[in-house]
Protein backbone atom coordinates (compact mmCIF):
# COMPACT_ATOMS: atom_id res chain seq x y z
CA UNK A 1 0.00 0.00 0.00
CA UNK A 2 0.87 3.71 -0.01
CA UNK A 3 1.36 3.88 3.76
CA UNK A 4 4.36 2.66 5.81
CA UNK A 5 4.70 -1.14 6.17
CA UNK A 6 1.85 -3.26 7.55
CA UNK A 7 3.43 -3.82 11.00
CA UNK A 8 4.09 -0.15 11.53
CA UNK A 9 0.58 0.99 10.59
CA UNK A 10 -0.90 -1.74 12.78
CA UNK A 11 1.20 -0.57 15.72
CA UNK A 12 0.27 3.10 15.20
CA UNK A 13 -3.47 2.36 14.99
CA UNK A 14 -3.22 0.50 18.32
CA UNK A 15 -1.20 3.40 19.77
CA UNK A 16 -3.83 5.94 18.62
CA UNK A 17 -6.59 3.96 20.33
CA UNK A 18 -4.54 3.45 23.50
CA UNK A 19 -3.61 7.13 23.85
CA UNK A 20 -7.06 8.58 23.25
CA UNK A 21 -9.36 6.11 24.93
CA UNK A 22 -9.01 7.62 28.43
CA UNK A 23 -10.27 11.04 27.28
CA UNK A 24 -13.84 11.39 28.41
CA UNK A 25 -14.45 15.05 27.62
CA UNK A 26 -17.41 16.12 25.49
CA UNK A 27 -21.13 15.41 25.34
CA UNK A 28 -23.26 12.97 23.37
CA UNK A 29 -25.66 14.61 20.91
CA UNK A 30 -29.21 14.83 22.16
CA UNK A 31 -31.06 16.95 19.63
CA UNK A 32 -32.11 13.70 17.96
CA UNK A 33 -33.58 12.09 21.11
CA UNK A 34 -32.46 8.50 20.49
CA UNK A 35 -28.79 9.50 19.96
CA UNK A 36 -28.59 10.45 23.65
CA UNK A 37 -28.94 6.76 24.60
CA UNK A 38 -25.61 5.64 23.12
CA UNK A 39 -22.77 4.25 25.30
CA UNK A 40 -20.30 7.18 25.60
CA UNK A 41 -17.38 4.78 26.12
CA UNK A 42 -17.52 3.33 22.59
CA UNK A 43 -14.34 4.00 20.61
CA UNK A 44 -13.13 2.50 17.34
CA UNK A 45 -10.18 3.46 15.13
CA UNK A 46 -9.60 2.09 11.62
CA UNK A 47 -7.10 2.85 8.86
CA UNK A 48 -7.80 1.58 5.32
CA UNK A 49 -5.10 2.10 2.72
CA UNK A 50 -5.61 2.60 -0.98
CA UNK A 51 -4.25 -0.91 -1.58
CA UNK A 52 -7.13 -2.43 0.37
CA UNK A 53 -5.38 -3.23 3.67
CA UNK A 54 -7.49 -2.51 6.75
CA UNK A 55 -6.25 -2.02 10.33
CA UNK A 56 -9.00 -1.95 12.97
CA UNK A 57 -8.83 -1.47 16.75
CA UNK A 58 -11.52 -1.19 19.46
CA UNK A 59 -15.20 -0.79 18.57
CA UNK A 60 -14.47 -0.82 14.85
CA UNK A 61 -17.54 -2.85 13.90
CA UNK A 62 -20.13 -1.23 16.16
CA UNK A 63 -22.78 0.35 13.94
CA UNK A 64 -24.15 3.87 14.37
CA UNK A 65 -26.14 6.22 12.15
CA UNK A 66 -23.89 7.92 9.62
CA UNK A 67 -25.58 11.35 10.05
CA UNK A 68 -23.77 14.24 8.37
CA UNK A 69 -20.98 12.05 7.02
CA UNK A 70 -23.54 10.90 4.44
CA UNK A 71 -23.41 14.42 2.98
CA UNK A 72 -19.91 13.83 1.60
CA UNK A 73 -20.83 10.65 -0.25
CA UNK A 74 -24.22 11.82 -1.53
CA UNK A 75 -22.41 14.90 -2.82
CA UNK A 76 -19.97 12.66 -4.71
CA UNK A 77 -22.86 10.71 -6.26
CA UNK A 78 -24.57 13.94 -7.34
CA UNK A 79 -21.31 15.33 -8.78
CA UNK A 80 -20.96 12.10 -10.73
CA UNK A 81 -24.48 12.57 -12.15
CA UNK A 82 -24.38 16.33 -12.89
CA UNK A 83 -20.73 17.32 -13.27
CA UNK A 84 -18.50 19.97 -11.73
CA UNK A 85 -20.06 23.17 -13.07
CA UNK A 86 -23.73 22.56 -12.45
CA UNK A 87 -23.20 21.36 -8.87
CA UNK A 88 -20.89 24.31 -8.21
CA UNK A 89 -23.58 26.74 -9.31
CA UNK A 90 -26.51 25.07 -7.58
CA UNK A 91 -24.94 24.04 -4.27
CA UNK A 92 -21.73 26.10 -3.88
CA UNK A 93 -18.45 25.41 -2.07
CA UNK A 94 -17.84 28.28 0.37
CA UNK A 95 -17.84 27.98 4.14
CA UNK A 96 -20.70 29.76 5.92
CA UNK A 97 -18.89 30.37 9.22
CA UNK A 98 -22.24 29.53 10.83
CA UNK A 99 -23.72 26.41 12.43
CA UNK A 100 -24.55 23.50 10.11
CA UNK A 101 -28.28 23.98 10.60
CA UNK A 102 -28.29 27.76 10.23
CA UNK A 103 -31.31 29.36 8.59
CA UNK A 104 -29.58 32.74 8.59
CA UNK A 105 -26.85 31.47 6.25
CA UNK A 106 -29.54 30.81 3.65
CA UNK A 107 -31.28 34.16 4.19
CA UNK A 108 -28.02 36.11 3.95
CA UNK A 109 -27.27 34.71 0.53
CA UNK A 110 -30.48 35.06 -1.53
CA UNK A 111 -31.42 31.52 -0.67
CA UNK A 112 -28.25 30.03 -2.11
CA UNK A 113 -27.37 27.04 0.08
CA UNK A 114 -23.63 27.89 0.15
CA UNK A 115 -22.04 24.43 0.42
CA UNK A 116 -23.10 20.76 0.52
CA UNK A 117 -21.93 20.10 4.10
CA UNK A 118 -24.40 22.42 5.86
CA UNK A 119 -27.98 21.18 6.03
CA UNK A 120 -29.31 23.67 3.45
CA UNK A 121 -26.73 22.55 0.89
CA UNK A 122 -27.12 18.89 1.81
CA UNK A 123 -30.87 19.14 1.23
CA UNK A 124 -30.28 20.88 -2.11
CA UNK A 125 -27.83 18.09 -2.99
CA UNK A 126 -30.14 15.24 -1.98
CA UNK A 127 -32.87 16.90 -4.09
CA UNK A 128 -30.58 16.34 -7.11
CA UNK A 129 -30.12 12.59 -6.51
CA UNK A 130 -31.03 10.58 -9.62
CA UNK A 131 -34.38 8.79 -9.38
CA UNK A 132 -37.90 9.36 -10.74
CA UNK A 133 -39.53 9.25 -7.28
CA UNK A 134 -38.35 9.91 -3.71
CA UNK A 135 -38.37 6.14 -3.14
CA UNK A 136 -36.01 5.65 -6.11
CA UNK A 137 -33.78 8.50 -4.92
CA UNK A 138 -33.56 6.89 -1.49
CA UNK A 139 -32.71 3.52 -3.04
CA UNK A 140 -29.98 5.21 -5.12
CA UNK A 141 -28.57 6.88 -1.98
CA UNK A 142 -28.54 3.56 -0.13
CA UNK A 143 -26.97 1.55 -2.93
CA UNK A 144 -24.50 4.35 -3.73
CA UNK A 145 -23.24 4.63 -0.15
CA UNK A 146 -23.17 0.82 0.05
CA UNK A 147 -20.82 0.71 -2.95
CA UNK A 148 -18.50 3.15 -1.18
CA UNK A 149 -18.57 0.88 1.89
CA UNK A 150 -18.29 -2.34 -0.09
CA UNK A 151 -21.23 -3.91 1.70
CA UNK A 152 -24.98 -3.49 1.92
CA UNK A 153 -25.83 -0.65 4.35
CA UNK A 154 -29.20 -0.69 6.13
CA UNK A 155 -31.51 1.95 7.57
CA UNK A 156 -31.67 2.36 11.36
CA UNK A 157 -35.45 2.64 11.66
CA UNK A 158 -35.35 3.85 15.28
CA UNK A 159 -32.99 6.73 14.48
CA UNK A 160 -34.95 7.57 11.34
CA UNK A 161 -38.26 7.79 13.22
CA UNK A 162 -36.72 9.72 16.10
CA UNK A 163 -35.29 12.33 13.75
CA UNK A 164 -38.38 12.41 11.52
CA UNK A 165 -40.46 13.41 14.58
CA UNK A 166 -38.12 16.21 15.63
CA UNK A 167 -36.69 17.69 12.41
CA UNK A 168 -38.87 20.79 12.13
CA UNK A 169 -35.78 22.85 11.48
CA UNK A 170 -34.73 20.85 8.43
CA UNK A 171 -38.30 21.10 7.13
CA UNK A 172 -38.14 24.86 7.61
CA UNK A 173 -34.82 25.06 5.75
CA UNK A 174 -36.24 23.00 2.88
CA UNK A 175 -39.31 25.25 2.67
CA UNK A 176 -37.07 28.31 2.70
CA UNK A 177 -35.01 26.88 -0.18
CA UNK A 178 -38.27 26.18 -2.02
CA UNK A 179 -39.37 29.80 -1.51
CA UNK A 180 -36.20 30.93 -3.29
CA UNK A 181 -36.72 28.43 -6.12
CA UNK A 182 -33.67 26.41 -5.04
CA UNK A 183 -35.58 23.14 -4.55
CA UNK A 184 -37.87 22.22 -7.40
CA UNK A 185 -39.42 19.00 -6.06
CA UNK A 186 -41.57 18.50 -2.93
CA UNK A 187 -39.39 19.86 -0.10
CA UNK A 188 -40.83 17.55 2.55
CA UNK A 189 -40.05 14.52 0.38
CA UNK A 190 -36.49 15.82 0.07
CA UNK A 191 -36.25 16.10 3.87
CA UNK A 192 -37.54 12.53 4.17
CA UNK A 193 -34.87 11.13 1.82
CA UNK A 194 -32.22 13.21 3.65
CA UNK A 195 -33.43 11.96 7.06
CA UNK A 196 -33.16 8.36 5.83
CA UNK A 197 -29.70 9.00 4.40
CA UNK A 198 -28.57 10.30 7.82
CA UNK A 199 -29.97 7.15 9.48
CA UNK A 200 -27.97 4.63 7.42
CA UNK A 201 -25.98 2.35 9.74
CA UNK A 202 -22.20 2.30 9.34
CA UNK A 203 -19.16 1.30 11.43
CA UNK A 204 -15.75 2.95 11.76
CA UNK A 205 -14.51 0.22 9.43
CA UNK A 206 -17.10 1.25 6.82
CA UNK A 207 -16.05 4.91 7.16
CA UNK A 208 -12.40 4.02 6.56
CA UNK A 209 -13.24 2.01 3.43
CA UNK A 210 -15.60 4.72 2.16
CA UNK A 211 -12.86 7.31 2.68
CA UNK A 212 -10.24 5.07 1.08
CA UNK A 213 -12.48 4.92 -2.01
CA UNK A 214 -12.23 8.72 -2.27
CA UNK A 215 -8.46 8.45 -1.64
CA UNK A 216 -8.19 5.87 -4.40
CA UNK A 217 -9.71 8.03 -7.15
CA UNK A 218 -13.17 6.50 -6.80
CA UNK A 219 -12.28 2.79 -6.86
CA UNK A 220 -13.19 0.90 -3.68
CA UNK A 221 -9.81 -0.64 -2.76
CA UNK A 222 -11.40 -3.64 -1.03
CA UNK A 223 -13.98 -4.65 -3.66
CA UNK A 224 -12.16 -3.21 -6.70
CA UNK A 225 -15.39 -1.59 -7.90
CA UNK A 226 -15.34 1.90 -9.44
CA UNK A 227 -17.94 3.99 -7.61
CA UNK A 228 -17.25 7.53 -8.93
CA UNK A 229 -14.66 9.19 -11.17
CA UNK A 230 -11.30 10.56 -10.02
CA UNK A 231 -12.46 14.10 -10.83
CA UNK A 232 -15.46 13.67 -8.52
CA UNK A 233 -13.12 12.55 -5.71
CA UNK A 234 -10.98 15.65 -6.20
CA UNK A 235 -14.03 17.93 -6.07
CA UNK A 236 -15.45 16.17 -3.02
CA UNK A 237 -12.17 16.28 -1.09
CA UNK A 238 -11.73 19.99 -1.83
CA UNK A 239 -15.17 20.68 -0.36
CA UNK A 240 -14.42 18.54 2.70
CA UNK A 241 -11.18 20.43 3.32
CA UNK A 242 -12.97 23.77 3.54
CA UNK A 243 -16.33 22.76 5.08
CA UNK A 244 -16.27 19.18 6.40
CA UNK A 245 -15.74 19.87 10.11
CA UNK A 246 -18.46 22.47 10.71
CA UNK A 247 -17.22 25.81 12.07
CA UNK A 248 -13.92 24.15 13.08
CA UNK A 249 -12.95 23.36 9.47
CA UNK A 250 -10.17 25.96 9.41
CA UNK A 251 -8.68 24.85 12.71
CA UNK A 252 -8.93 21.21 11.67
CA UNK A 253 -7.07 21.82 8.42
CA UNK A 254 -4.48 23.89 10.28
CA UNK A 255 -3.83 21.18 12.88
CA UNK A 256 -4.41 17.97 10.91
CA UNK A 257 -4.08 18.92 7.26
CA UNK A 258 -6.57 16.43 5.78
CA UNK A 259 -10.03 16.71 4.20
CA UNK A 260 -12.50 15.16 6.63
CA UNK A 261 -16.18 14.86 7.52
CA UNK A 262 -17.76 14.42 10.91
CA UNK A 263 -21.30 13.59 12.05
CA UNK A 264 -23.22 14.18 15.27
CA UNK A 265 -23.41 10.48 16.14
CA UNK A 266 -19.62 10.54 16.64
CA UNK A 267 -18.06 9.36 13.39
CA UNK A 268 -15.20 11.05 11.55
CA UNK A 269 -13.65 10.09 8.22
CA UNK A 270 -10.37 11.75 7.16
CA UNK A 271 -8.88 11.15 3.72
CA UNK A 272 -5.26 11.19 2.59
CA UNK A 273 -5.45 11.40 -1.23
CA UNK A 274 -3.60 8.58 -2.95
CA UNK A 275 -2.82 6.94 0.41
CA UNK A 276 -5.88 5.91 2.38
CA UNK A 277 -8.33 7.01 5.05
CA UNK A 278 -8.92 7.02 8.78
CA UNK A 279 -12.36 6.15 10.17
CA UNK A 280 -13.12 6.75 13.85
CA UNK A 281 -16.16 6.41 16.08
CA UNK A 282 -16.65 7.84 19.56
CA UNK A 283 -19.91 9.58 20.53
CA UNK A 284 -18.57 12.30 22.87
CA UNK A 285 -18.61 15.59 20.93
CA UNK A 286 -17.04 19.02 21.32
CA UNK A 287 -19.24 22.14 21.07
CA UNK A 288 -18.93 22.28 17.26
CA UNK A 289 -20.28 18.69 17.04
CA UNK A 290 -17.03 16.86 16.31
CA UNK A 291 -16.01 13.68 18.19
CA UNK A 292 -13.38 14.48 20.81
CA UNK A 293 -11.56 11.12 20.80
CA UNK A 294 -11.95 10.85 17.03
CA UNK A 295 -10.24 14.17 16.46
CA UNK A 296 -7.38 13.26 18.79
CA UNK A 297 -6.86 9.83 17.25
CA UNK A 298 -6.95 11.27 13.72
CA UNK A 299 -4.49 14.02 14.69
CA UNK A 300 -2.11 11.43 16.12
CA UNK A 301 -2.33 9.18 13.05
CA UNK A 302 -2.02 12.06 10.59
CA UNK A 303 1.22 13.08 12.29
CA UNK A 304 2.60 9.58 12.85
CA UNK A 305 1.83 8.41 9.31
CA UNK A 306 3.01 11.69 7.74
CA UNK A 307 -0.34 12.41 6.09
CA UNK A 308 -0.65 16.21 6.44
CA UNK A 309 -1.19 17.51 2.88
CA UNK A 310 0.72 20.69 3.56
CA UNK A 311 3.87 19.09 4.97
CA UNK A 312 6.78 19.01 2.52
CA UNK A 313 8.39 16.03 4.26
N1 LIG B 1 -29.35 14.38 10.62
C1 LIG B 1 -28.70 15.47 11.26
C2 LIG B 1 -29.37 16.80 10.88
O1 LIG B 1 -29.84 16.94 9.79
C3 LIG B 1 -27.26 15.46 10.85
C4 LIG B 1 -26.54 16.52 11.50
C5 LIG B 1 -25.08 16.24 11.66
O2 LIG B 1 -24.56 15.14 11.72
N2 LIG B 1 -24.43 17.35 11.84
O3 LIG B 1 -29.47 17.71 11.65
Summarize the structure.
Substrate binds at residues 68, 119, 163, 170, 194, 246, 264. The protein has 313 residues and is α+β, with helices and mostly antiparallel strands.
Features:
313 residues; Beta-lactamase; 2 domains; 13 helices; binds glutamine
Question: Can you give a write-up of this model?
Answer:
Belongs to the glutaminase family. Keywords: Acetylation, Hydrolase. It is a single chain. The chain has 313 residues and is of the alpha+beta class. It folds into two domains: 6-64 and 203-304, Beta-lactamase, CATH 3.40.710.10; 69-198, Beta-lactamase, CATH 3.40.710. The protein contains 13 helices and seven strands. The protein has helices spanning 6-20, 69-82, 84-91, 104-107, 119-127, 134-149, 157-164, 168-179, 187-198, 204-215, 230-243, 249-255, 292-304; strands spanning 44-49, 54-58, 64-65, 201-202, 260-262, 267-272, 276-281. The strands form two sheets. A five-stranded antiparallel beta sheet has the order 2-1-7-6-5, sandwiched between helices. A hairpin with a 4-residue loop joins strand 5 and strand 6. The radius of gyration is 18 Å and the shape is globular. The mean pLDDT is 96. It binds glutamine. Glutamine binds next to loops.
Amino acid sequence: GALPGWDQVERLVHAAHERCRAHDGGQVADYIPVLAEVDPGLFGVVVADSGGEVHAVGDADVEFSVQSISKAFVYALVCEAYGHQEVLERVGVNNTGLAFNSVMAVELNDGHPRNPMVNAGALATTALMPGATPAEQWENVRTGLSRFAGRQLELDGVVYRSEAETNMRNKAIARLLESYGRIRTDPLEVVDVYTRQCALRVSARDLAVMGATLADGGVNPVTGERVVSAQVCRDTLAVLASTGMYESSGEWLFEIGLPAKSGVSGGIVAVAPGKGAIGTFSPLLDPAGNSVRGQRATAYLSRALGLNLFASS
